[in-house]
Amino acid sequence: MHQSVEVLYKKVDECPIVNSQFSFFQMVYVISGNGLLHINGNAISYQAGNLMLLTPNDYHNFDIINTTEFLLVKINSEYVKEYKSKSIDHIGCLLHYATHLSGCILKRKADEFLVKSISDSLIHAIENKDIYDEDLITHYVNALIVIAARNIAKIKPTGIKESADKRILEIINYIQAHIFCPQKLKASAVAKEFDISDTYLGSYFKNHSGETIQSFISNYKIRLIEHRLRFSDMRINEIVEEFGFSDESHLNKFFKKHKDISLTGYRKSNVSQN
C-alpha cells in the first residue's frame, strides 16, 4: 500500500479474497447486510452499524450471508506510527491491540451515530470529487482513528469481570497512564493514590482481575515494547529511556523473561515475517 490512507466503498455478495493478509490497518464499517468475519481462526458475526478493525498480518475473510455494503478504510502502518495526538499516547499500540478483540469495537453507544455520520461523509467525498478532497478525507479518517482508539481503550482487560466495581478500572487507567513512570507504579504509590493499604491493594487487584498487579503492569509494558519493536524505528536505548529501565541489559532481561527471545531477535523475526 503506497498511499497513507485509502477509502473504498464495496457492495458484495461474496468475499473476493479468501484468507487474505495485509500489511496495513483496515477499518471495516458495515453499512448494510450481515454475515461472518473469519479472523485468525475465529468466526465472528457482523451486522449493519458494526465497525471492525483488522490489524497488520491478521488472516481474515468474510462469509457474506446477505448482500453487504462495506466502507473500507485502509491506513498505512507508517501513518499510524507517525500519527500525532495531544491526548492519546501510543495510539498505534491501542489499534494493534484490536487483534486480541472480537467483532465490533464500538463500545460507546454515542459513537455509533458519529461513525455512521463519518461513513456517510466519506462516501459523499469519494463519490463527489472536488478540490481539497485528500485533506477532507484525511480529517474524517483521523476522526475514525480517535473513535476506534477510545473505544478500544474502554474495553475491559481479559479477566476483569463485568460486575467489577469502578475502582479496579480506575486503578487500571492509572497504571496505563503512568506506565512510563516506574516510581508511580510501585505498590506503595498506587495504594497511596487510591487511599488503600499495600496489602489490600494486592489481594483486591487479583480478586477483580485474575492476575497480580505486578503481572498486569509487566504484561502491559511488554505489549507496548512489542509494538515499538514491530512498528517503530526506535533504538533500544530510546526504549530503555522511555520506560525507565536502568540500562539495555535490564530491559533485555525483562523482555526475554516474558517472551523467551531477545529484543533484537524479536525485531528481526518480525521484520522477516513482514
Estimated radius of gyration: 20 Å
Structural class: alpha+beta
- What is the H/E order? EEEEEEHHHHHHHHHHH
| Count of alpha/pi helices | 11
CATH architecture of the largest domain: Sandwich
CATH superfamily of the largest domain: Regulatory protein AraC
CATH topology name of the largest domain: Jelly Rolls
Task: Indicate the mean pLDDT.
Answer: 85
- What is the top-level CATH class of the largest domain? Mainly Beta
Q: How would a crystallographer describe the biggest sheet?
A: 6 strands, antiparallel
Give the % helix.
40-55%
Tally of distinct domains: 2
**Termini, distance in Å?**
13 Å
Q: Would you count the extended β strands for me? A: 6
Notes on the structure:
This protein has 274 residues and is of the alpha+beta class. It folds into two domains: 5-153, Jelly Rolls, CATH 2.60.120.280; 166-273, Homeodomain-like (Arc Repressor Mutant, subunit A, Orthogonal Bundle), CATH 1.10.10. The chain has helices at residues 77-82, 91-96, 109-127, 133-153, 166-177, 187-193, 198-209, 213-231, 236-243, 248-259, 263-273; strands at 5-12, 20-21, 25-39, 42-47, 51-54, 59-75. Strands 1, 2, 3, 4, 5 and 6 form a six-stranded antiparallel β-sheet that branches. The mean pLDDT is 85.
